[in-house]
Amino acid sequence: MDDPFTEEIIAFLPNLKRYAISLSRRPDLAEDLVQLTAERAFRNRHSFDPDTKLQAWLLRILRNAWIDMTRRDRTRGTQTPIEDAPWLAGEDGERVAEGRLMLDETRRAMEQISPDQRDVLVLVCIQEVTYQEAADILDIPIGTVMSRLARARKALSKEMGLDGWE
Q1: What's 1-76's CATH class?
Q2: Distance between CA 93 and CA 53 in Å, rounded?
Q3: Closest Cα to residue 144, out of 116, 165, 113, 166?
């Protein structure tokens, strides 16, 4: 493939999926979000500024797609997500089971913090974007990113019973 734009998007797809899962909390919906993001990126390729980071541009597209999808879903009525995932259970050993339990506990704790704090936490700590990139993606000042991140970390540690961690 001779197109660097396409290659960069393909290389970044796993990161987009992780962010989409953190927003939607549903793997099937996350795949739809990633597909929509890629489609919008290719359709609006001409508007991409090569002086900016493609990663931040794609994350912003994905976040906007999530907002659009959420607004659209409000008019559809209640949908029941599939909570049972028998494919997660396995006989992979004690460490894998403990890891899954810790991830589940972390997921539940993240659901308890405010969406604004969760967005910043996911972008900076999971997606590893800079504070400035997070500010650009969320369209907020960098100081707000830093304060939300500090509050998110503190709230998450409290929710997980890690009192005293600062």
Answers
A1: mainly alpha
A2: 41
A3: 116
pLDDT means over runs of 10, the chain (166 residues): 83 91 88 92 88 89 89 69 51 72 85 91 91 93 94 89 66
* Cβ-Cβ contacts under 8 Å for 53 (sequence gap 6 or more): 133
Give dist(CA 85, CA 83) in Å, integer: 6
The predicted model scores a pTM of: 0.54
Domain boundaries, the chain: 1-76, 93-166
Angle at 75 between CA 115 and CA 140, to 5 degrees: 30
Rounded distance, CA 56 to CA 61, Å? 9
Q: Is 79 helix (H, G, I), strand (E, B) or coil?
A: coil
Q: How far apart are the first and last CA of the chain?
A: 47
Q: Which CATH class name applies to 93-166?
A: mainly alpha
Let me know the angle formed at the C-alpha of 125 by 124 and 127, rounded to the nearest 5 degrees. 70
Longest dimension (CA), the chain: 52
82, 159 Cβ separation under 8 angstroms: no
